[in-house]
């Protein structure tokens, strides 16, 4: 929804609260490197959690659900390898 329209209808607090929730959802505590984030909080805020789109069915193979070697990925992220 457009923030100016939201401000005119509900007041100043509504767009500020929505922007704060967007920032909080984007800065969620990082998961372990071998777990992909689903961004469910952002999808819920954007009202796109109930729709099925192209990316849900024919997604990029780089975002597949294949799990790598967890210990090796964590050690690589920490700079031990």
UniProtKB/TrEMBL annotation:
<comment type="similarity">
    <text>Belongs to the POMP/UMP1 family.</text>
</comment>
<dbReference type="GO" id="GO:0043248">
    <property type="term" value="P:proteasome assembly"/>
</dbReference>
<dbReference type="InterPro" id="IPR008012">
    <property type="entry name" value="Ump1"/>
</dbReference>
<protein>
    <submittedName>
        <fullName>Proteasome maturation protein</fullName>
    </submittedName>
</protein>
<dbReference type="GO" id="GO:0005737">
    <property type="term" value="C:cytoplasm"/>
</dbReference>
<keyword id="KW-0143">Chaperone</keyword>
<dbReference type="GO" id="GO:0005634">
    <property type="term" value="C:nucleus"/>
</dbReference>
<dbReference type="Pfam" id="PF05348">
    <property type="entry name" value="UMP1"/>
</dbReference>
């Amino acid at each position: 929804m457009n923030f100016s329209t939201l401000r005119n209808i509900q007041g100043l607090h509504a767009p500020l609260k929505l922007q704060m929730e967007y920032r909080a959802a984007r800065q969620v505590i990082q998961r372990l490197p071998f777990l992909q984030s689903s961004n469910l909080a952002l999808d819920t805020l954007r009202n796109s959690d109930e729709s099925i789109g192209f990316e849900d069915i024919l997604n990029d193979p780089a975002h597949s659900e294949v799990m790598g070697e967890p210990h090796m990925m964590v050690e690589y992220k920490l700079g031990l390898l």
